[in-house]
Design brief:
The protein is of the alpha/beta class. Helix content is 33%, strand content 22%.
Amino acid sequence: MRHLSTYFAIAALAPAVLEAQGSADLVLTNGKIYTVDNARPRASALAVRGGRVLFVGSDAEARVLAGPSTLIIDLHGATVVPGITDAHAHLLGLGEMLQRVNLAGSKSYEEVVGRVKAWAKDVGPGAWIQGRGWDQNLWPSKQFPTHDALSRAFPNNPVVLTRIDGHAILANAKAMEAAHVTAATADPTGGRIVRLSSGAPSGVFVDNANSLVYRVIPAPTRADTRKAILAAVAEANRWGLTGIHDPGASAETIGIYEELAKAGSYNLRNYVMLSDPGEPGSVGVLRNPYIQRGPQSALYDGHLWIRAIKLYADGALGSRGAALLAPYSDDASNSGLLVSTPQHIEAWAETGIRTGFQINVHAIGDRGNRIVLDAFDSALRKTPKADHRFRIEHAQILSPEDIPRFARLGVIPSMQATHQTSDMGWAEARVGPQRIRGAYAWRSLLNTGVVIPNGTDFPVEEVNPLLTFHAAVTRQNPSNQPAGGWYPEQKMTREEALQSMTIWAAYAGFQEASLGSLTPGKYADFVILDRDIMQVPDTEILGTRVISTWIGGKRVYEAK
């Protein structure tokens, strides 16, 4: 594989690097270091020079590399792992959520309204109020809400509350009035207005219907967006993240990323996926500055990659927008929504092959996943290409016959372990006892020979990557339920879980030559933990605390 040849090249250079660069800037000793490098899986010491790993090995050897100005840190037995990458995370979405009403974990619609009222107590009449995180599956009724209670609480303010998955919203009467949505408004292609028995909009909009309301919400200022991004970066570092793969970023948002990275104020390595630019060859695509520039890698000392495009096949399972091959088991009249045409996905796959852009497609339902696999298959038959690394984001519900196709086509399933633990209470009701066997099927996929880059989809799930690790190895929620794990035959090993958050994530972003393991020559990105997550009992994993987070040998977070 390509990443192995790259490793041997780096390993061959390591002695020359040691000799040429002189003393280290930083030396860590007396630790439990998991390198995720098969040549030296475990070590006690690490040396850094010029932002890159200089040496990994014993304490005695590392001390030889220390000079008068070297910072030497005794880890006192603490654990070190490579910098953790979240392979599917929405940075701006997290920043915006930090500035809005957080509705995650609300146990009832009444609690949702109460949280909004508490947050908005000083908001003046007419101002827009936004929040995110409600999930009707956590409520006693498990039904979508209607706008009535929200409209009564806020008769003079437009309010829009995004569902936890980002694929549905709840708007109050004032917001729908501003959007000119009435009973006569038609459902857009790939979207659904949930309606009352009278035909009037209930307040809930699903997938492409969200845009009916979003289009009238005042856009944030550039300063607001910049502030949100910086807050999200700091939050990511706090939990041990050194990198993310950021799906669906706009040109305006990427411009701010570049501005911050140029100024040295961007403490993250971001593999950016451009938001669907439109039909290939259209005026909008031709004018997109990032399409014009072509794929860009390791900009600003490895802080930005802009070389992928994010598309959408379908919606989400929780809002019954995921496209299924047969109707929902708990809604026989509904098989989900396709938010893009199969032709659109295939056209971009063909364009990606020609231009070098990686094509990554959101697909959750078994029909959505099959459509994407078919589109990739067709494009690759027309123009065969090795090492394209096309991805399906989520790959959540798979038909058994489609599982081997990922390996055959070279398609990477980019998955999120905590989606399984969040969804397991209701997912089987959506798809029934047979289809659930192909849901969150990590072991079935791994057994075919693919790798699985792991993530959280934050702010859909919590930022904490230790939740990801715990879910991957136990298939249990943070309370260690259910006993033995949910469909435990699909668990990952601890080694696989760590790889999924480090070297496999790097491979999924064409970054394995510089990221993903503590190998001489690679960036010195690592996390220091207060306990050994590779050895402690399952029930103690989530008690682990991040002591510090380092990017390029620079400390970007330290616990107080």
